[in-house]
Structure prediction request, 500 residues.
Amino acid sequence: MTLILAIDQGTTSTRAMLFNEELQVTASAQEEFEQHYPASGWVEHDCSDLWTTTAATCRGVMEKAGVKAEEIAAIGITNQRETTLVWDRKTGKPIHNAIVWQDRRTSEFCKGLKSEGFEDTVTDRTGLLLDPYFSGTKLAWLLNNVDGARARAEAGELCFGTVDSWLVWHLTGGKHHLTDATNAARTMLYDIRKGRWSQTICDRLGIPMSMLPEVRDCAADFGETRADLFGKPIPIRGIAGDQQAATIGQACFQPGMLKSTYGTGCFALLNTGSEPVRSQNRLLTTIAYQLDGKPTYALEGSIFIAGAVVQWMRDGLQIIRNAAETQPLAERADLSQEVVLVPAFTGLGAPYWNAECRGAIFGLTRGSGPAEFARAALESVGFQTRDLLDAMRADWSASGDAVSNAPLRVDGGMSASEYAMQFLSDIIDAPVERPAVLETTATGVAWLAGAHSGLLPDMEAFAKGWSAEARFEPAMDDATRDARHTSWRKAVDATIGYAS
Prediction:
């Protein structure tokens, strides 16, 4: 057994990848699935799509590589976080579509909880903010709005899970209802200091604790697959939410190390070590990973729209045919124009957390065209990241730790853009490192499963093996950097003000 099978279940597609003993990708398979938008601000997935694409891509990558189950030492799972599923404990049948992390249907419920002062309780126990983004209020919505759901839940007939739990349930034939600490930490139901589900929060949201999965370390025994799936049972030995898996894949194991992933959204994590740092800037305190029963904490900032702004240019504005066209278009932009795009299509994430504002463009002239839009779109990601890092550094400094100008390790689809990464380095005034292995999310969870199985090296050796494919150094002068960022903050303030 010399291979690891990594399952990467994402927001728009599912991938399965085979890694060898050198943590090199030997084969991969991918399938997209449909997104459902039943109402404004609502986003759903057909639960069966998440499972069938997982099973199909696993079989597909094994067939492509000519590999049998006997050659696979373990499976690792990484997944879109916060997406909420509820299913029948006996049949495995879901009671409703999955409610996706982007969904905003519980905004009013969250407002009501905030008005009664419940957010302090949530933040103190979970490190999170009271926002529709997280699983807790999504689960409450399902119990309150699906016929018979609450009675069935109180009778112990229903299971709740994030996508990892749903996949483990089906991979093991319904034998295991499990999650890991990183996914649990994103539900808004888990006490990250005490390492257990919060009875206080569950009671307030009306969630029976019998619905909740057992929480284990990121590298642990999560059962084994049904024999009929792949020809022979394969152990499941690693699970981590996608952003935490990327943090692991980027070898950000030391306090002060930073990573940022640019996918549909953008997610930046700062390793803060063995003690959680409570943010004073509306960032999230979360679990970066948990090994041997010991959690390592992180500050996280989430941007709702990163790569999705390029998709909007392609599908909404229809000024590009594919993402690769964005960079040459941006390079042709008129630099005398200061077009600023605030891509708040579904609200603003950290450090603003304003669910009500919507996207806006400032500085348009008669000469503004596709090139200026492309430049503003790519730069919007750098500006948002700057705001996150400024807030992180302020919190890190307030905790008594030295503020470092450590390199930012990046991954995700948009990290391939030389223009976007150079601007990012310029605007944050720090080096940006792009890894030699771009599949950091799958790599992270493959390492978890492989290390737990004894196939792959320990953390120290894994970290030594990390290398950069490209390094971007800041080239913008301080005056320009400050002026550009000031313009951006004015645009953000105006966007928020328009929505108020």
Observations:
- Residues 370-398 form the longest helix (29 residues).
- The mean pLDDT is 93.
- The longest strand covers residues 294-303.
- Residues 29 and 61 are 5 Å apart (CA to CA).
